[in-house]
Amino acid sequence: MISFKNIYDKAINLFEDPKIKKAYLTNTIQFCKLMYPFLNTSYSLFKNPSFIGVELMNNKEPSGVMQIFDADGTTKVFKLDFTPIENSIFEYRENGKIVEGEYNKDTNEVTFSNILEEGEYSCEAYFPGCFLSDFDVSYKSDLAGGISTQIEDILARMLVRAWGERTRNFLLDIQNILTTTDFNLHPSSSALRSKVEWMSQLEQEISRLQNKLAMTLRFARNSNWGKRIW
Questions:
Q1: C-alpha–C-alpha distance, residues 75 and 199, integer Å
Q2: Which of 58, 139, 175, 189 is most solvent-facing, going by the fewest CB within 10 Å?
Q3: Are 159 and 37 in contact (CB under 8 A)?
Q4: Are 138 and 224 in contact (CB under 8 A)?
Q5: Residue 66 and residue 42: Cα distance in Å, rounded?
Q6: Binning pLDDT at 50, 70 and 90, where does residue 176 land?
Q7: pLDDT (mean) for 176-196
Q8: What are the two backbone dihedrals, phi and then psi, of residue 24, each rounded to the nearest 5 degrees?
Q9: Is 155:106 a contact under the CB 8 Å cutoff?
């Protein structure tokens, strides 16, 4: 299984925009929600190796539940009316402000930072989604882990590429509105050239990593005698 959050964690280091990194640290759940459409676009385009793309179609989509509690000035511990999905991300708020909190799986209770005299608490449990296949080519855990890591690296770059394409298209729209002379003098001109170069670098990295993955899987086939393979 590969959690979508594993891919987001790797993608964050590939973004050149510091505002995106800040958004990730400020509100991880919201960042995951914003990035999911780009990941959803990316894994459907995974063509090399093609059978990995087929395996990626077997996935569990993101989902989340929020519960609100009224403050009464006596406690900061509350029992949830639902059971969070395993590997969920939690966000705790006191009167709308994000705070530290803790979830106890054994009691299904959440503990907030402070006892409020009035107002409300909220807890959101967000499951970021996952690919369900174990990608176990040879029943060797070390090899399977290596394959999963390579897939995560590829998908992280494909996600960032999808995000970059939207930004590039926005800059192209600006170019189409402005005259050639105006655009060359406009800050978006250098931004577009920089974005194109960055996208080209991502394409090269994706191609290199996919070829590496294909070689890993080919080696796994050749080294397995009578074991399950794709």
A1: 52
A2: 58
A3: no
A4: yes
A5: 28
A6: very low
A7: 49
A8: -65, -45
A9: no
